[in-house]
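Example 3.2
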Amino acid sequence: MAWLEGWQYRKSHEIVGSTAGAVTDYQIRIKVHYGSGTDSGEDVYLNGKCRTDFGDIRFTSDDGVTELPYWMEEKVDGDYAIFWVKVPSIPANPNTATIYIYYGNPDATTTSNGDNTFLFFDDFEGSDLDTSKWSTEWLYGASYSVADSIITITSSGTRPYIHTLKTFTAPFVIEAKVQKINNDIEFGWFVTPPFRGTGSNPPTTGYMLLDAIWLSPESVLIDKAENKSWIHLATTPLSVPTGWHRMRVFQKTDGITGDIDGTSASTTDTSYQSGNICLTNRETNGAQQSFDWIFVRKYVDPEPSHGAWGSEEVCVSLTDTCKGGDWVSLDRYLKLTDCT
């Protein structure tokens, strides 16, 4: 089998298909550990053989050379990194897809790219909002700033919204890193011009806002607003401290599940199945909220799962370069192979 040029080590990994059927371009989460341990589930251990900054991590399809898009969500140098990998095809259960993780290239730097990995992605680089992705038509006098790959929204007395130009239809998952600064933290998606929080909405009938995650010590996890009235879909009171939190919305065809830092609630409400993603905030004058990143990924229920990890394979080259040739698996036999 061919080998990815320039890399010394690799491991195979099986992705077990979903009973819901085959999927394409599906995003799979993998946690890569720098040190030693037992490979299992999403966790793989590289025994100190990758770069400490994980810049040499690559993923390929089952042919060993076709690189797969990926995004590095977070890392702690010399400890671990979390990756999302777009797998081109996963068959239905009980069949599996095979991918490879490559490591061991001291000259490599990361090629992490969220836009190539997800249905939608933004980590707010630069100094302004990307208007090819977002609209501010319903900002309603609020302000925002973009700096250090973070967007901060500041309310001015009405509930502001920055929404995606793209719409999404269930099923899908929204994931985001959100900072609570001085008020409730909110995050959601909506179908038509949203609830402004002042009673002076656009003259529209049938509009609806689903704050799929609305969290504070006083509020509930999942609400929706229809005809200017809030309807509680789930009633799990939470105490959310200031600081950064990881938030998710699973918009399913049979309801909604949301969680923050692992605490979740759900509803079987299916009134609305498609719409735009919105970054929102409280209408309180001066209320602030920040977003570090946000992405939308594919979803089936149940999701594909992690199967077996293969043993470490080593490319031994007479020229110290692995270039698309034979490989040697040291757990089975040792064989010098010219990979040039």
